Amino acid sequence: MKIGIIGAGNIGGNLTRRLTALGHEVSVANSRGPQTLTALAEETGAKPVTASEAAKGAQVVVVTVPLKAVPDLPAGFLDGAAEGVTVIDTGNYYPQRDGRIAAIEDGLPESRWTEQQIGHPVIKAFNGTYAQDILDRGRPQGTPDRQALPVAGDDPAAKQAVRDLIDELGFDTVDGGGLDDSWRQQPGTPVYGNRGDADAITKGLAEASPERTAEFRA
Ligand SMILES: NC(=O)c1ccc[n+]([C@@H]2O[C@H](COP(=O)([O-])OP(=O)(O)OC[C@H]3O[C@@H](n4cnc5c(N)ncnc54)[C@H](OP(=O)(O)O)[C@@H]3O)[C@@H](O)[C@H]2O)c1
């Protein structure tokens, strides 16, 4: 599959490593330009590109930049993507890093905010997954206690595409509901950073509270 990854840090870098290893055709971008991505490109075979180019022809685009950088993404960066492109948002709101975002403080789920910024529906996934786990903790389907990731979003086909991709990466998934339910996997919830299996993640999602913990409020 043709996959564009915008953000080449902890999460974007490791997704680039694993997805290229699985045979996907990956383009990867950061804020400083493709000339700063030669080491990652040589290591993985991914194509280093600008953020404007990353989505070109892609069936899946991963937006994995700090939340505060989302409004800086180039206007129309999804315009050249494949028809029906699925956009994955890995983001979390850390006011200490991102500054105060009033709409989120007032209760808008952070991925709904991201969706509004980029003008395209998103599927929230990987946001509570340690970056290193993407490299280290993938296991074949059926492995007992296989780690599970929650996935939230409104478009059933896009959500299924993301769940299939995560399965390829070696993890089970749990349906986290629509994007309006995605607060159930935001920072501070029981599933955030939870390495449990599908039963544990299902239980954690059910036990979540929409109240943002003090640590994750401005
Ligand atoms: N770290 C984790 O374990 C983890 C786990 C789950 C979710 N997350 C969430 O996932 C998101 C990314 O986290 P991270 O830890 O991977 O971040 P990170 O290591 O700080 O990397 C951020 C990446 O985004 C790029 N970037 C910033 N602004 C950009 C722009 N305007 N256009 C294109 N690229 C841009 C940066 O490029 P430059 O370096 O060139 O500026 C960098 O490659 C965050 O919202 C984070 O909360 C992180």
From TrEMBL:
KW Oxidoreductase (keyword) present: yes
Domain Pyrroline-5-carboxylate reductase catalytic N-terminal: 2-93
Superkingdom in the source lineage: Bacteria
Gene3D superfamilies per the UniProt record, alphabetical: NAD(P)-binding Rossmann-like Domain (3.40.50.720)
Presence of keyword Plastid: no
Keywords: Oxidoreductase
Region (Disordered): 177-196
Protein name: Pyrroline-5-carboxylate reductase catalytic N-terminal domain-containing protein
Upper classification of the organism: Bacteria, Bacillati, Actinomycetota, Actinomycetes, Kitasatosporales
